[in-house]
Structures are given as C-alpha cells and as structure tokens.
Amino acid sequence: MVASIFTFSCNFQYFINDGNPHCVKVLAVLEFTGVKCDVKHVNHEERVVPYLSRPALPALLLPSGTHLFSPNSICQYLIELNGQESSDIVNQWLEWEATELQPAVMHALHMVVLQGKGAETPRVLQGPLSYLDQSLSQRTTLFLTAEMVSVADVVLWAALYPILSDSSLVSGNQTLQLWFERVGMLAACVSAAQTVLQGKGLKAESLKTYLQRQPTTHHGQGQVQGRGTQPCNSPEGDDDDCVLSEEEIQSAAVTWGKGLTDLPMVPERQHPILPQEGKRNVLVTSALPYVNNVPHLGNIIGCVLSADVFARYGRLRGWNVLYVCGTDEYGTATENKAREEGLTAQQICDKYHAVHASIYQWFQVDFDFFGRTTTKKQTEIAQNIFWRLHERGFLLEDIVEQLRCEACQRFLADRFVEGTCPFCSYPEARGDQCDKCGKLINAVELREPTCKVCSQTPVVQSSKHLFLDLPKLEAELEQWLERSTGSGDWTANAKQITRSWVRDGLKPRCITRDLKWGTPVPHPDFSDKVFYVWFDAPIGYLSITANYTDQWEKWWKNPQQVELYNFMAKDNVPFHSVVFPCSLLGAQDNYTLVNHLVATEYLNYEDTKFSKSRGVGVFGDMAKDTGIPSDVWRFYLLYLRPEGQDSAFSWVDMATKNNSELLNNLGNFINRAGMFVSKFFESCVPAMALQQEDKRLLAQVGWELKQYINLMDRVKIRDALKCILNISRHGNQYIQVNEPWKKIKGDETDRFRSGTVTGVSVNVACLLSVMLQPYMPTVSHTIRQQLNAPPSVTGTLLQGTGNFVCSLPAGHHIGTVSPLFQKLESEQIESLKKRFGGQQVTSDPAAQTAVNGADAERARELTLAVAEQAEKVRTLKGQKAEKTVIGAEVTKLLELKKQLSLAEGKDPEPVLTKGKKNAQPATTPASDPAAQTAVNGADAERARELTLAVAEQVTWGGNKCNELGIRGETMEV
Amino acid sequence: MSLKELSSLEKALGLKKPNKYSTQGDRKVPVLQTINGQALVGLVTIATHLVQEAKRPELLGGSAEHKAVVQQWLEYRVTKVDGCHKEDIKTILKDLNSYLEDKVYLAGNQFTLADTLMYYGIHHVIVDLAVQEKEKYMNMTRWFDHVQHYPSVRHHLPPVVVLRNRVYTSGHH
C-alpha cells in the first residue's frame, strides 16, 4: 500500500506561494503523511488552476490532471491516501475552519500586518477562539477529535499559527494555548511553518507581501465576516470603518504640523524630456489607436486615458515621465477606408489623425507627444530593425500561396477577397475569417473567391514572404519574460495571455504583406512588399519618440535607466509581450523592453457592445456633444475602468455616480469647507487647535492617502479613485458631527471649535485637489484656484508614502468659492440614452417609412438610371477611354447613387463626400481604389456595408485584432 | 434556508424519518441532534452524514480523488457561493462555467452530493439570469438544467426555464 503511494505520488505537483498561511496546512500534512510530491514555489498571481479566474493557492495537481484548490480538501485527500477515513467530527471541524475561523483570521491578519492595529484583533477573533477553547475544555482527549492527532488538528493549528505564535495578540483561552503548543511540537508543523513563513509567524515579510497582494481581503470584508465576529454589512465604498491605533493618530498629527516647508516643488516640464541620472525615468506608452475609425469610450479608457492618469500621477510624484502615443496608420483597413471615402490613404490618415488628436485633447489627455506612424523615421527605424534581424539570421523565407487578381494586378490580402466559406458554405466569407461561423480562413481555401474591388475571380499564385523566426528567439524571450514579469507590475491577464502563448509554442510569423500602404521592405527580393502591421506598428513607439526628439535612443536604447510602461486592452497583449520583444531582442541593439505591461479587460455599452455600424455606444467625438464636462466623463470612465474584469458603461449609472459621488459626496464636501471659510471667517483660514477627534480624521485621511499611493504605484487606477471618495466621505461625516455652522453662533469656545473644524476641512479639500489631479485635471485646478493653494502643494503631499500636512495654515486667504459639479437630471439621461442607443445610423424608422412611401417611385427610376450609368462607365473603361472622360461619368454615377440613397431614406453622407472629392479626374489615377470601385460598378454602398461589418468585428478595446489575424487566438482566452 | 435544503435532501435520499434541526448564530448554521446525543454543526457536515446514513456512499465520490473533488466543491458552496457579494457572482458563474466545460457533473461523470448542494445554493442566482446571461454561461446552465431534472433533486425550488436553442448566436466575443 505504502509503496504504491510512493511510486504514484512522485507525479503530484504542489504549488505554493511564499507567505500564504494556507500553504502551511498542506505542507504540514504532507510531512505528516510522508506523501512525496514536487513542491513548486510560484508568484502570488500565478493562476495554477486554469478554470478559476482569480489565483487560488495553494493547489495540488494530481497525475490525472485534476486540480485541488481547497487546502482542506487537499489535506483530507492526503490523509485518505494514507488509509484514514474522515469522521463526522473531523468533517465538522474542517467545515468550521473554512466558514468561521478562516474569515476571522484573514480579517485579523489584515488588520495586524497591514494596518498595524494589533489592539483590535481580540475583538475580531474572540468569537471563534473561545468557541474552540470551550470545545477543547469539554473534551477529555489530548487532541480535537481523539487521543491521536487528526487532520483537523493540523488544519486548525496551521490556520491559527500566524496569530497564536504571537502571544501578545491573544490572551486567555488556556486550553486552546496548551493544545496549540502540543500540535506545534510535531516535526511536520515546525518544518511547514519554516518553509512558508520562515518560522517568523506574523513578522514574516513574505506574509505582508502576500496580504498586500490579496485584493479581496480589504474590500471583501463584509463577505469574510463570520459567526462570532461583528456584522459588517456596510455598503460599497465605506467598508473600512478603519480602526486606528493611538500611535497612528498621534503620528498623523505630527505630520500635519510639518506644513509645506522644505519640501520640493514639482519642476516645470521642459521639452524635450530626456532620461536623467538619479531620477526615476518612466516612459509611458499607450497602444496606438488605429487611424481609420473614431475611437469609442472602450478604446479611450483602455489605453490613452489610463496611461494619461498614470503619467500625470508620475509627474506629481516627481518622476521624470515621458508619455508618447500616436495614430497607427498603415494597413488594409486604411486602404479600405480610403476606397470607401474616395480619398487617398494619406488623406484618410491626415483626416483621422486630426480627429483623434482633437478627441484626446477634449478628454485632456496630456501627451508629451502625439505622433503618427506614417513618417520617415518610421521607415528608417523599421528598416534598421529589419536589417539587423536579417543579418543575425532571425528571418526565414518561405513561399506562400496567395490569391492574385489579374484585373487589378495585385495580390489580394485579407479583406480584399470574398468567397464561400469552406466550413459552413456562407457565401460572403472574408479572406481571413468567416463572419457566420467565426472560423479563421486561409484565403486560398475560399470557394469561388472574388476580388472585392472588381468582382473578378482571382488566381492562386505563390509569392515569397519573410518570417520572423520566433522559435529561435524563444529561449531568450522566456528568460527576459521571467525577469520582467517577476519584477514589474504586469496585470494578471497580461501574464496569463503571455504564458498561454509561450506555452503553446511559438511559430515563425510572416512579417511581409502584398500591399501598397505600409513601410516598404528594403530587401531587393521583396521590393513590392510592405511590412505587416504587427511588425511595423509597435515600432511606432520608437519612431514617434524619434519625431519628438533626435535623442530618442536615450529612451529606447537605455534599459539601465528607463522603466517602460505599456498600456493597452488585453487583445493587444501578445504583440507587446511576445512578438515585439522578439523583434527587439533579435535586433540585439540594447533596446528598452517593457517592464510593466498594463492591460485592461473590455468595457461594454449598457448590456451590449459598442458598435459603430449599429450606432450603438458613445464615440469620442460625441462625448462633448452631450454637454457633460470632460472631467465628469473621465471620472466615470475611470470609476468603471475594466480593471481585472469586464465592466459596462450605463447612462443611468453615470448619472447616479455623478449625483451621488461627485455632487453629494466630493463636491459637497469641498464646497462646504470652502464656503465656511469665506462666509464665517472672511475668506481667511482660522486658527486651529487639534482635538483627539480632529487628529483621528487626520489619521483616517492619512491612511487613505497611503493606500492611494500604494495602489497608484501599482497602477490600480480604479481602486485608487475609491480612496479619494472615502476621504471626502470621512470629511462630510466630520463636518456633520461637528456642526461648525451652528457652533459659529455659540460662545467663544464654540466659535473657536468651529474655526478648527473649518480649518481642518479646508485642508482636506486642498489635499483632495491634488489627489484628483490625475483623474479630473480641470476640477483639480479649479479647487486649487478657489482655495488659492500655494503651487508647492502638488509636489509635497504625494512625496514618499504620502504626507498629509497642513498646507493652508491659519491666516491663509482663499479665493472665491463656487460649486464644482452639476446634477444630471433623469430626463437628460433618458434622452442621451435614446440618442446613443442604436438609432443613429437608421434614424427614426417612422420618418423613414414616410420617405420611402413618398419616394418609392422615384427610387425605382433612379435604380434604373444608376444601372445604366454604371454600364456606361464599364463600357468606357473597356474601351480604355481617357481618364478625364471616365472620371466625369463616374461623377454622374455617384450623384445618381446619392439621389437614390436619399430616395430610399438612407443617410447619403459618406457617399456624398466621396463623390465630390472623387470628381477631380486629375487627382484620380486609375490605380486609386475608390475610383476603381465606382468604375467597375462594384457598389460603393456595398463596400460601406462591408467595412462596417468589419468595424463591428473590431468594436472595442483599441484593437485591430482582425487586421492582425489573431482574433481566435486571443479573444477567447 | 439551509433547513429546507436538508429536508429536500432527506427526501431525495429516501430517508423515511425526517430529522429535527435547529440553527445557531447569526448566519443560522444548521445543527442536527443525532441519536447518540452528539450534535453535528454545519451544512456540509450534516449533508455528508445524511448520505452515509442513507447508505449512498457513491454520492460522496468513489475513489479518494473523487471524494476530494466532491469535498472541495461542497466547501466552495458554503464559503464562496453562500453570502457572496453581488460583484463576485459573475466570477463564480464564470469559474463554474469554465470548470464544467468538459464535465457533466461537478465530480466528472458521476452525480454527487456536490451537485445537489451547489444546485440548491446557486438556484437564487440562476433564477435572476437573463436569457443572454444563461447563454454566456452555457456549460454552467447545461449542468444546472441536468441537475434540476435529476430524479428527485428539485424539491423545494421552482424550475428554471432553460432554452435549448441559442438566441444570441453572434455573441462569440
């Protein structure tokens, strides 16, 4: 029996993380039973159990592939392998441990280790501990269930080990203490405690790190409360009736007294910003938004806005920050868009680059430089990296079978071809993917393929392409990943997506494309090709920086001095964590590689997805038309930031958050504090004498400030925002309890008291203005103006771990105070909801029917006229007529189509603008794809539909995964 | 609430004589006075005891491994599903859904006590799901439908309608 366990058990893998007290249980039982097992130490965020979305450690992987993630079940299992069955009473103790003891212990550990509130632990633990003590006293046996140690003893001992090993925390419960010592003497227990917590119990540094990484412990306190502890069913947001120790309160008062003296100012930004010796040099990038569409809210929160908040925060902290971004402009989608709008690709890029820039400007995204990828520098740098990869043997050549349209004289990439899906026979499958069954398609597999431009049947031809040899770089990549993910703040999804890519093994990836609109491949054998966007686009970060400063290499070839943060939505992760790093590693040019990869999940719109084609959702350019200020948009998007899980934009929720959090909580507090100073004290901050109650508030606020800094340093942007709202909640409560507006009318003592409360409150308001700056820059500025805050506050309060000092001392004159926020009324919200709820494209259906009814006759006539005109154009083309002649007929055709659209009640706008521009024959060479569309009679309207269908596929997350052909690989992770 | 569950479980197990239960504490943890004078506390403990009493050990899992899996999901039910925050519900549904992707029941191909108690515990969540959400958590919904139709499981709870054909077919994001 024993022998069989041994041979079999070598295949057990037990995953533990340092400092996790749950791991002690299982290690002790492993020792105790002698079951052999590979013990693997992993990171706190390692998701060992594939089907659980949050890391569950410890976990045991059985040879059958089954994961056990409940420590108690693992212990029971090991004991059973050893031949012992669990009895009712053992089961009962294990259930009690999981449901009652564990929540109380976690709560207590959180308070002692992270908040330094040792004095509070007896209150939390008293219930379960005395229950255990009594149960032990009523028994006559040495151990919990018998004279022998059972699995229940070991499990309970391990759960209590961190707490009970510190005798100062819990007194009394003598029987319990004796039992605890008895179990603790087992060799198995001693060695398990040594492995996980270095035998140090509560003082183990690893325990602290572990607890800090447990996001749910603090916010989930309501959940982890059990029987025997105090009920804590507080609503979201104020779950921290944080109990402060006397020392904390006193030390907060001391900090407060320091004032603003001798603390450094945040220096003015001077361009060009370059890395500096002795500073923290932080390079921030946001995924480059694809130029051919207007970004929607999901795109904005996913990258540019998140990166902006972090960059602003970094500047406040006194780091040397450079934030660059720009539009990604090459690729098929741009060519398609150009055809659709009747412009050249360059014109499309110019037009939409400006649209993007103005949207981000409205959202107050404070780039140090917002560039684009269609620049000379891009060509230079991309070609340089290409040659270096080539010289070092990291590129492979291979023949690829491709469809070529003889009529158009070109290879048909991705979306230039359509046909019948080989899997489901859907007749309108695209060259890269079928919209019906969702399968990825290799264009040559399409049945009855047709060219999307001229509707001719393409032929299969082989074409030579270059591939990046990822397998050759895999070992180096893995080494680097280990270092970077180990030391940097990578979000859990970023690590997981990366891991799954590497785990599945890397394959060579094609880096060239048969297109015109792209960075040309400099190799003579591939002169008619361009780089595939995924190779090219990330190089945009470098070239955009190069367009900002000639000394760009100080940022990008300087991993020793520079820390690189990449912000993106999760679908972009593989390109930033695997593919692009491989290009840079292979180039062997000391490139700066990403240290912190910050990826968001997706933002949905109400209960559906953003969709340009259906007109569902709010797009960047529409946000300002809502009349809601940019700061409020920023606030709500950041409040919703899909951090850790998907979230959804909702109008009603936006109004609620605006009215409850901004207006009634934050705005109300700041406004009241300021108004008291101006109304009761002639705009002059009164003298203050701090009482215990005031110091308590200072300590509460100071604690939230520390949390804020702690969270922001780790890019937990959404969580950090809650700290700001908690502070104003504390502030409101403080004002409410102390009633300065009543005391001002009382005797001298009361009036002085009113002064102290007002003075403290207005200083809290001043602190809030600084903490708000990354989130709501305008509001932050307005508050500081209203309070006439000295410029040095911005730098001072966020230094180190945070200093809540008195920055507006007695005698300070404040400015004019006025309300900061406005109520969002429900009618206003209802009308916005309607406006953005999917009716934008088709407009009012009733009106449309009327139009159709009236113009049905005219529509029929026009349909005929369009067909005739199209035939005429085709004939002219067939006769190789002069371009000017064809151009003139095309203009007529487009005009007719526009009228037809109108008659059919469709929005003719996009066709109209195209037609006008297209009408200039001189600027319309025959190769212009837009002209071809019209010339060949392929319906422009149809092209628009198709592109919209494409847009729908790529609706959110700042992505262009379809373009990259990776959708199936990343989206479903 | 848990008392109703236990009484349904007794019926499902075919136990003739209903037991008497009391509760203890704010969370109303069930307590069973057994014949030998011993009190058993806790839903999982009592349910396990009932299964043994009914001589249906297969409901606790056959092999040691199966037993551990059953125990694990029983514990999950009482620690994670019971009293979960609103925001955690999605995580629970998502996790169960991906776990059940290649399984018929929680412990693989065999129906166990874990299925019964998980079904009782999660019923109130599933009742409130929209059709679209049920489709989103398709594997979990399939499991739930199986269990609610398993002979004599669904005693005190109303049936939840599960559509057989998909309505939201395009949503493969």
From TrEMBL, chain A:
- Bilayer-spanning residue ranges: none
Region of interest (Disordered), ranges: 213-240, 905-939
Organism's domain of life? Eukaryota
Alphabetically sorted, this entry's keywords are: Aminoacyl-tRNA synthetase, ATP-binding, Ligase, Nucleotide-binding, Protein biosynthesis, RNA-binding
GO MF, one example? RNA binding
Q: Where is the composition biased (Polar residues)?
A: 213-233
Q: Which NCBIfam families match?
A: metG, PRK00133.1
Task: List the protein's name.
Answer: Methionine--tRNA ligase, cytoplasmic
Give the organism, scientific name: Oncorhynchus mykiss (Rainbow trout)
Q: What is the lineage of its organism?
A: Eukaryota, Metazoa, Chordata, Craniata, Vertebrata
UniProtKB/TrEMBL annotation, chain B:
GO biological process entries: positive regulation of DNA damage response, signal transduction by p53 class mediator; translation
Q: Name one GO cellular component term.
A: nucleus
Location relative to the cell? Cytoplasm; Nucleus
Q: Name one Pfam family in it.
A: Arc1p_N_like
Q: Which UniProt keywords apply?
A: Acetylation, Coiled coil, Cytoplasm, Nucleus, Protein biosynthesis
Q: Residue ranges of the GST C-terminal domain?
A: 49-171
Subunit annotation = Part of a multisubunit complex that groups tRNA ligases for Arg (RARS1), Asp (DARS1), Gln (QARS1), Ile (IARS1), Leu (LARS1), Lys (KARS1), Met (MARS1) the bifunctional ligase for Glu and Pro (EPRS1) and the auxiliary subunits AIMP1/p43, AIMP2/p38 and EEF1E1/p18. Can interact simultaneously with MARS1 and EPRS1. Forms a linear complex that contains MARS1, EEF1E1, EPRS1 and AIMP2 that is at the core of the multisubunit complex. Interacts with ATM and ATR.
Q: What does this protein do?
A: Positive modulator of ATM response to DNA damage.
Q: What is this protein called?
A: Eukaryotic translation elongation factor 1 epsilon-1
What is the organism of origin for this protein?
Oncorhynchus mykiss
